[in-house]
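Dear colleagues,

As part of the handover before I leave the project, I'm documenting each prediction I ran so the next person doesn't have to rerun anything. This entry is a single chain, and its sequence is reproduced below.
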Amino acid sequence: MNHPAEQKYVIFITLLYFTISLLGIMHHELWLDEAHHWLLALDSGSFSELFYNMRHEGHPMLWNILLFLLTRITDNPFGMQFLHIVLSTLTVNIFLRKSPFSTRFKVLFVFGYFMLFEYNLISRNYILGLLFLFLALGMYRQRKEKFLLYAFWLALAANIHLMFTVISLALLFLFSIENKKNILRYTSGYLVFAAGIFLLVLQLFPSIDSIFLTRTHDIPLYERFTKGFISLFKGLVTIPDFRTIHFWNSNLMVNYSKPISAVIGLLLYALPLLLFYKRKATLLFTYTALFGVQCFFFITQLSATRFDGINYIILITALWIDHYHLYRIRNNINRDFARRTVLYLLLLLQFSSGLIAYMYDYWKPFSSGKQVAAFLTQHHLSKMETVTQFCEGTIIAPYLDKRPFFLCTNRNQGLCNWEQNCNTAITDSQLIALLATHSTQNSDFIFISGRNITQNPENTISLKKLTHLSPCIVRNTNYYIYRVTRSITKPIPHEKTIARF
């Protein structure tokens, strides 16, 4: 891209994207996963402690290593958000400069749901996967001449998340099929990628028995297959249910009819046949990647829009590499028209959903972390001890001066212990008993919970409801804030009579 007009266009779109992103994160509150990974890095005193704390995460470590280095400079969570939009802006810039698409296509993709909102305003590791994937695709034309570097970028992408491992493996598989007669020529690149996969296995092995796998044992076989079909539908037809403030991780069509969405998702597996008719190499990559994603969902049963989006990224990747494969196919006006129509309908749908989601996040609180901190500061309660049942404390911890006390673990902490078997489904009387027990250690503290405690405590403690925060985009995070004070020295029930976690 050497034309001055094209360079100016890239600079303008990049700056516009960064500006919009900066305004977005200034109005975005961290939710559980964002806060957890920030605290995971912040509260780790060394690399060895960081690696130990990540043993149950189920994620490769690169994003947390970056956060660990960042937390040696600042303890302000905005630093993570700023780093994230710098990475997303760099990713967008690479896409604008290197991808073979039209200007219209690029703008619609860049400001679509995933690039503008899901993988941009929400600070997670997925943006690194896109960055390394786009760096690999940016040199796709020279993949044979620079295979070592191509394999290096794919190996890095594979070490961000298993979803990107699937895409990287599919791209490398396609390369090996195309160059099977000269495989020894590319040995060094294959060894680099193999080393990356080995490193990935080392990072994920400690968490192989985590809840991400064990929770799928009791799910019927047909339902486990359905998860992948619905994911393809939600990844391509991304229409969050904007009828409610809790639109995030929802889909309007799925809410209307899950079976119909699953059937449409199954039919969408025929879409690549329309888009890449008789393009064998592109079809090989596309269906290999989609099969890998189906396996991912079948095994993990994870369900969230950020995971569904990998299907959309596979489609964009397929369109990108298709541009560099020469096919001797007679043009068909009707098929080409149908192909462009389908593509731009999907892009326009993603663009519309992205703008609406961005505006929702701009005007409405994403979670209640900042609201809690603001309320406590405004009412001169910020110096008091903050107590929560479990991971509610993780959401608010980045905005407090000191770590909250978790009743579940019976200690002050910030990050959420995924492996902790914490039963939060207890009655009001059981919860009040736990608060009464804690009041023997601190007679006056703030309790934050997602539940409205209607039962009046006995004479042991006084439970005063201070406020109920306004609804947030993330469900069940508009917390109740209570002030708990110990009233008399009545004996506390023996610990065996209290429903412990």
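Confidence is low (pLDDT under 50) at residues 494-501. Strands lie at 386-388, 405-406, 411-412, 444-449, 461-468, 480-486.

All the best with the project,
I.
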